[in-house]
Write a structure and sequence with these properties.
- The chain is α/β, with parallel strands linked by helices.
- The chain has one domain (3-116): 2-Layer Sandwich (Transcription Regulator spoIIAA).
- It is built from five helices and five strands, in the order ββαβαβααβα.
- Strands 1-2-3-4-5 form a five-stranded mixed β-sheet, sandwiched between helices.
- The longest helix is centred in the first third of the chain and has 18 residues, at 24-41.
- It is globular, with a radius of gyration of 13 Å.
């Protein structure tokens, strides 16, 4: 796997930390693992920590947008933290920044989600 996924839980929030390259070859496995973790925990809040991500293509955007749609339809929310500059450009081009909240630090996202709980 060119991408490493680690999940953690902080209260009612699942944090999915990605390291490496999230592309078409890896997207399906990442999607499945995150969905299983959300189902296992019953969490409706998800933070994608992309600080260690070195590459992402449109398949990676699909993973993020799919989790966003799924959680939003259940009253949940998704935030993104630590977006590298090369990935930020993809977010700008795709319009992802217009619909999702992006934070610089994980603690900021956790604080915001706690306030909304």
């Amino acid at each position: 796997m060119k991408v490493k996924l680690e999940t953690a839980r902080r209260g009612s929030v699942v944090i999915a930390s990605l390291c490496g390259e999230l592309d078409d070859h890896e997207a399906s496995a990442v999607r499945s693992l995150i969905d299983k973790e959300l189902e296992r925990t019953g969490a409706l809040r998800l933070i994608f920590d992309l600080a260690e991500l070195t590459f992402m293509d449109s398949s990676g955007l699909g993973v993020i947008l799919g989790r966003y749609r799924n959680l939003k339809s259940c009253g949940g929310e998704v935030a993104i933290v630590g977006v590298p500059s090369n990935v930020a450009r993809l977010f700008d081009i795709s319009g992802l920044r217009k619909i999702m909240v992006i934070y610089k630090k994980r603690e900021d996202a956790l604080f915001a989600m706690k306030e909304e709980a």
